[in-house]
Write a structure and sequence with these properties.
coiled coil; single chain; elongated; disordered N terminus; six-stranded mixed beta sheet; Small_GTPase_Ras-type; GTP-binding; 6 strands; Rossmann fold; 323 residues
Length: 323
C-alpha cells in the first residue's frame, strides 16, 4: 500500500483507493450518527502519519535496526466482542507494553496499527485494522472490512464464555462473506477479485468449500494469565477445529506479553501460503482456459478441413460425370 506525505505540510496524507472505500463505508453509517467522524479522521490520520514519519514508524524501526526495507504488506482484520482486549493486543504488539488503567487514552491504536514483522528473513508490513465493537451488529460494515483484508484475528476473552459465542457468529459471517463476495483488489490484496472455486475453507469432513476465496482465519483467546478463566485451552481449540474455515488457534496474554510476538509472524506466513496457492490456481485456470481455446480452434480447423475434403470429392465426381 503506497501513500505519500508532504514534507512542507506534515498533515497532508494521500489515501489509497482501498482506504477511501473503507472510510466511506464506515462514515456512511453510525459514525455520522454518533458525531465521531472527526475523531475517527484524527485517529487514523495520526496513525498514518506516525506509520510513515514517527519515531516508532516502520521506516525508522528498520533504519534503527539496520534491517532490510519491507518487501510486502498484509492487511489484517482484528475483530471480537467489546472488552476482549483487541486494542490491548495491538498496543502490546506495536508499542511493546500493556496499557495501564490510568494511562491517557491514545487514539493511535483505536483503529489498529502498522508493524514491520520479519518472516523467513524478509520484512513485511502488517496493517492491522480493528473493527469497533459497536459495528459488529452491522453485517454490511463487517463484510466491507473482510473484503479489504486477507486475514482476520477473531479475539475472545477466556474469562467470558459469551465472547466465544460471539466469535462463533463472527466465524459464520466471515465464512459466508468469503464464500459469496469477491474481495476488493488492491496493493495489500493482489490476489483478490479472482474467480470462485479457489477456496481454502474446510468443511467438517475436510473438503474444500466451493466458491470461497483465500482468507486466513485465527481464533485467539486473550487473557490467558487470568486465574478466573472459564474457557479451557482445549475448548477453544475444539471450537477452532469445528469451524468450516481452516482456523489457527492460539491463546495469548496482552497483559504479560505471552505468545504475543508469535501472532503476526504466524499470520504473515499463512497469508504468504495462501497467496502462493492462489497464484498456482490462477496459473492453472489460465492454462486450462488456453487449452480450451486451442481445442476449440483445432476443432474448427478439423471441421474446415473435412468440408474441404468432402467438397473436393463432390466436385471431382461431378466433373467425371460430365465427361
Amino acid at each position: 500500500m503506497s501513500r505519500a506525505t508532504s514534507s512542507e505540510n506534515p498533515e497532508s496524507v494521500m489515501w489509497t483507493e482501498e482506504e477511501k472505500r473503507y472510510l466511506r463505508a464506515l462514515m456512511r453509517h453510525d459514525f455520522l450518527e454518533t458525531g465521531a467522524t472527526e475523531e475517527l479522521r484524527r485517529a487514523l490520520t495520526v496513525r498514518r502519519l506516525n506509520a510513515g514519519n514517527g519515531p516508532t514508524s516502520p521506516k525508522n524501526r528498520i533504519r534503527n535496526n539496520d534491517s532490510k526495507p519491507p518487501v510486502g504488506e498484509f492487511r489484517v482484520l482484528v475483530i471480537g466482542a467489546k472488552g476482549v482486549g483487541k486494542t490491548s493486543i495491538l498496543t502490546r504488539i506495536c508499542k511493546g507494553r500493556f496499557p495501564t488503567p490510568d494511562e491517557p487514552h491514545d487514539p493511535f491504536y483505536d483503529q489498529g496499527c502498522r508493524q514491520v514483522t520479519e518472516i523467513d528473513g524478509q520484512n513485511y508490513t502488517i496493517d492491522a485494522l480493528e473493527m469497533p465493537s459497536k459495528h459488529l451488529w452491522r453485517d454490511d460494515l463487517v463484510q466491507q472490512a473482510i473484503n479489504i483484508t486477507e486475514a482476520a484475528i477473531v479475539v475472545y476473552d477466556v474469562t467470558d464464555p459469551d465472547s466465544l459465542r460471539l466469535a462463533r457468529g463472527l466465524h459464520e459471517l466471515i465464512r459466508d462473506t468469503i464464500s459469496g463476495a469477491p474481495a476488493i483488489a488492491g496493493p495489500s490484496n493482489p490476489s483478490a477479485g479472482q474467480q470462485p472455486g479457489m477456496g481454502y475453507g474446510n468443511g467438517a469432513n475436510g473438503a474444500t468449500t466451493n466458491g470461497a476465496r483465500e482468507y486466513a482465519l485465527f481464533l485467539v483467546g486473550n487473557k490467558s494469565e487470568a486465574e478466573s478463566r472459564r474457557i479451557a485451552y482445549s475448548d477453544g481449540s475444539k471450537v477452532a477445529t469445528s469451524w468450516h474455515v481452516k482456523t489457527t488457534f492460539m491463546e495469548v496474554s496482552a497483559k504479560t506479553g505471552d505468545q504475543i510476538t508469535l501472532l503476526f509472524p504466524k499470520i504473515g506466513k499463512e497469508i504468504l501460503t495462501l497467496r502462493s496457492i492462489n497464484q498456482q490456481r490462477k496459473e492453472f485456470a489460465e492454462k486450462m482456459e488456453r487449452m480450451k481455446v486451442e481445442a476449440q480452434e483445432m476443432q474448427a480447423k478439423r471441421k474446415q478441413g473435412l468440408w474441404r475434403r468432402l467438397s473436393r470429392s463432390f466436385f471431382a465426381r461431378r466433373e467425371v460425370a460430365q465427361i
